[in-house]
């Protein structure tokens, strides 16, 4: 099949490359010339494990091309997939400008029957809007389908090639058949539904996962006060199949380009039909406060942070990505600087993106974890990169001038931290938990 994918961000690029890997001929389009140049010269503009190898392999097999020419790509495709960004407006609503502009360009380029798919996360009713924009510019036949994306940055290739499910929202049998055939090699779990339900499934899924995170973070905050250990609580809860263990890891809350924006967008979608989504509003509120628990713990440990040197490990919103959009580190570092602290930061991959988004003379940009810790009174771990989990804490302690370790992701074991001579502040568990009884059999 000839496929055009519009937008070569985290979603469009991964999807396009993976469709090529399935043997289809894919044209990936972006209006950012710099990105297309990187792709054409054998690179990738984002950090995503395994993606570069697959891109090179499929480009060499002549199944994958990159272009800024949306009209050319559309004309050559039977299936056109829109995967442009839907960033938040100040109101929380999704900004539809990129979707609408892509739809208009597609409408102007149509040269025969095609299926037009929206993979971007979009408010209910957007596919209908895309349909009307295209039919205003093209009077031939075409079909519309919603194809929401569920990949996670950091494991995006695996998630795309081995998805839990594929959701196809369409009112056209031809589109349903074409998209089912496309995804059949990936999974048996293909759900064909109406367009609006497909659009809602995406928001509802992200809102539910965000709710799980805020829920366990609230439990963690109570655990800290009553002397329980949230990691034990989560383990005990997660073994119940009705609950499940994923997304029950307490920490400093969710960030990234999806959960913060999609939860706020769903609150707005509900508000537009005069429904007050109280539960989701609380989820957002809890998450907003949770990231600042790092600062509360720093202040509890150090007193005032004015003039103190603080090390920050991790800038990306999660490990294995260079994405810093709405990363907790942005607000935490900004607040620390407001409070007069000096920060030394390190991230294995994301420092460049972070600096492009937020820079300040009070930030020291370091090229190793040890360099960032050097001379600091406290260390805050904000992203659970493997490199931080495996670090030699005694060596870290030896280059610091203080002993405070705030573990925003519950990466360490308190005994290991104590053995390194550091004072440990994890999330939702006391640094010295009550020892479990050992039952001899
Ligand atoms: P992104 O910002 O990384 O990429 C979007 C790309 O679209 C950019 O490269 C931009 O230059 C390009 N673009 C915008 N308008 C264009 C046009 N008219 N023609 C050609 N290119 C154009 O965004 P992303 O993270 O890939 O997300 C895309 C969509 O997928 C969003 O709606 C997002 O909510 C959703 N989504 C994202 C993820 C994720 O983990 N990033 C997961 C699931 C769903």
How many structural domains are formed by the residues?
Answer: 3
- Which consecutive residue ranges, at least 5 long each, have pLDDT under 50? none
**Using only CA atoms, what is the Rg?**
24 Å
Q: What is the makeup of the main sheet?
A: 8 strands, mixed
Helical content band: 40-55%
Bound ligand species: nicotinamide-adenine-dinucleotide
Q: Span between N and C termini?
A: 61 Å
CATH class of the largest domain: Alpha Beta
CATH homologous superfamily designation of the largest domain:
NAD(P)-binding Rossmann-like Domain
Total strands: 14
Give the helix/strand class. Answer: alpha/beta
Q: How would you describe what is shown here?
A:
The protein is globular. The protein has 19 helices and 14 strands. With 441 residues, the protein is of the alpha/beta class. It has helices at 10-21, 33-40, 51-60, 70-75, 97-109, 126-135, 156-161, 173-183, 195-226, 230-238, 259-272, 278-290, 293-302, 328-338, 351-357, 369-373, 386-389, 393-399, 414-419, and strands spanning 2-6, 25-29, 64-67, 79-82, 115-118, 143-146, 166-170, 190-193, 309-313, 342-346, 363-365, 378-381, 404-407, 423-425. It has an 8-stranded mixed beta sheet, with helices on both faces. Strands 11-10-9-12-13-14 form a 6-stranded parallel beta sheet. The chain folds into 3 domains: 2-193, 3-Layer(aba) Sandwich (Rossmann fold); 202-285, N-(1-d-carboxylethyl)-l-norvaline Dehydrogenase, domain 2 (Orthogonal Bundle), CATH 1.10.1040; 291-425, NAD(P)-binding Rossmann-like Domain (Rossmann fold, 3-Layer(aba) Sandwich). The protein binds nicotinamide-adenine-dinucleotide. The site of nicotinamide-adenine-dinucleotide has 28 residues, from helix 1 and helix 5.
């Amino acid at each position: 099949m000839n496929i055009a994918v519009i937008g070569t961000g985290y979603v469009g690029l991964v999807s396009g490359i993976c469709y090529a890997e399935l043997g289809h001929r894919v044209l990936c389009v972006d209006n950012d010339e710099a990105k297309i140049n990187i792709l054409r010269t054998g690179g990738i503009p984002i950090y995503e494990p395994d993606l570069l190898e697959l891109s090179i392999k499929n480009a060499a097999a002549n199944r994958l091309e990159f272009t800024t020419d949306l009209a050319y790509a559309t004309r050559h495709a039977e299936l056109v997939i829109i995967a442009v960004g839907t960033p938040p407006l100040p109101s929380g609503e999704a900004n539809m400008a990129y979707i609408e502009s892509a739809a208009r360009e597609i409408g102007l380029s149509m040269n025969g029957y095609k299926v037009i798919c929206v993979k971007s996360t979009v408010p209910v009713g957007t596919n209908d809007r895309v349909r009307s924009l295209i039919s205003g510019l093209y009077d031939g036949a075409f079909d519309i389908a919603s194809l929401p994306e569920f990949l996670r940055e950091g494991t995006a290739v695996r998630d795309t090639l081995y998805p839990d499910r594929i959701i196809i929202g369409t009112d056209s049998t031809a589109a349903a058949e074409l998209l089912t055939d496309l995804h059949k090699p990936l999974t048996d779990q293909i759900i064909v539904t109406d367009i609006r339900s497909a659009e809602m499934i995406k928001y509802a899924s992200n809102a539910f996962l965000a709710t799980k995170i805020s829920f366990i973070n609230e439990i963690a905050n109570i655990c800290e006060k009553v002397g329980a250990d949230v990691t034990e609580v989560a383990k005990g809860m997660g073994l119940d199949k009705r609950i499940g263990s994923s997304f029950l890891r307490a920490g400093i809350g969710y960030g990234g380009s999806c959960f913060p924006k999609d939860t706020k967008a769903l609150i707005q979608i509900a508000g537009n039909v005069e429904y007050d989504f109280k539960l989701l509003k609380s989820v957002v509120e809890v998450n907003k406060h949770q990231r600042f628990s790092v600062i509360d713990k720093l202040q509890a440990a150090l007193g005032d942070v004015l003039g103190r040197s603080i090390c920050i490990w991790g800038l990306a919103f999660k490990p294995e990505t260079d994405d810093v959009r709405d990363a907790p580190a942005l607000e935490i570092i900004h607040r620390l600087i407001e409070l007069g602290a000096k920060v030394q930061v390190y991230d294995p991959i994301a420092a460049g993106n972070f600096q492009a988004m937020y820079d300040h003379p009070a930030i020291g940009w370091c090229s190793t974890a040890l360099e960032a810790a050097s001379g600091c009174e406290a260390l805050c771990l904000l992203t659970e990169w493997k490199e931080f989990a495996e670090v030699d804490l005694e060596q870290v302690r030896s280059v610091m001038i203080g002993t405070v370790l705030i573990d925003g992701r519950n990466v360490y074991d308190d005994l290991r931290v104590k053995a390194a001579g550091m004072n440990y502040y994890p999330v939702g568990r006391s640094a010295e938990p009550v020892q479990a009884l050992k039952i001899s059999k």
